[in-house]
Write a structure and sequence with these properties.
Length: 212
């Protein structure tokens, strides 16, 4: 697999399994950054590294919207500035990976990547800033719309299968050719030799070169 294309580029299509896998990769990277952040925090606070580390596995897609919320930065103490920079870098990387894989997944559904705006950004922004909105029954329709969009986006990208066959964004990632994998991608037909058992060899014991 071309990992650079898979995690960082926006063209082509991927299936549901690869999108779930991308979220797993992000979770592992978030855990590693959490460990590094805790180590830095302990060194800054204590001047020495303790043996017991508190692992931070609380990353979720909702955390991506903290990048645009000034309150997330003001609430940190000065000792946490290094941890803040580390987490901002991590969230930016995770956002890029999510956008690249989610857009390719929408392509698999034969939808434009702009569908992320109603299915991901609008519900996420509402969730991040809902506590700033007035607590009134007039806000119930907004909550209902955000919930429906979030549920629709989850089903669209993580549950239902992609369009069958080629579409405007590329070939079906689950399609299988009738003749199997392309020889050029599986092995070099011109350079590989097949050793034939003596009983099946032509007269004189000559070996046959496949593809000759």
């Amino acid at each position: 697999m071309d990992w650079t294309w898979y995690l960082f580029r926006f063209d082509g299509r991927i299936n549901r399994a690869l999108l779930w896998q991308a979220l797993l990769i992000v979770a592992v990277l978030a855990a590693l950054l959490g460990i590094i952040g805790q180590v830095i925090h302990l060194i800054n606070a204590e001047g020495a590294l303790k043996l017991s580390l508190k692992l931070d596995f609380d990353f979720g897609l909702d955390d991506l919207f903290k990048l645009v919320d000034p309150r997330a930065y003001r609430s940190l103490a000065p000792v946490d500035r290094t941890n803040l920079i580390l987490k901002a870098f991590g969230l930016s990387l995770f956002l890029w990976i999510y956008l690249a894989t989610a857009i390719k997944r929408l392509h698999d559904r034969d939808r434009s990547g702009w569908w992320l705006v109603p299915l991901f950004f609008l519900p996420g922004l509402y969730s991040q800033f809902s506590d700033l909105l007035p607590n009134s029954t007039w806000m119930l329709p907004f909550w209902l719309v955000a919930s429906i969009l979030w549920l629709w986006g989850f089903v669209e990208m993580f549950i239902v299968s992609g369009s069958v066959g080629d579409n405007r964004f590329g070939p079906d990632p689950l399609a299988k050719t009738e003749d199997g994998p392309s020889p050029a991608k599986s092995w070099d037909q011109q350079s590989e030799l097949e050793l034939v058992p003596p009983s099946a060899s032509p007269p004189g014991g000559m070996h046959v070169k496949r593809g000759a």
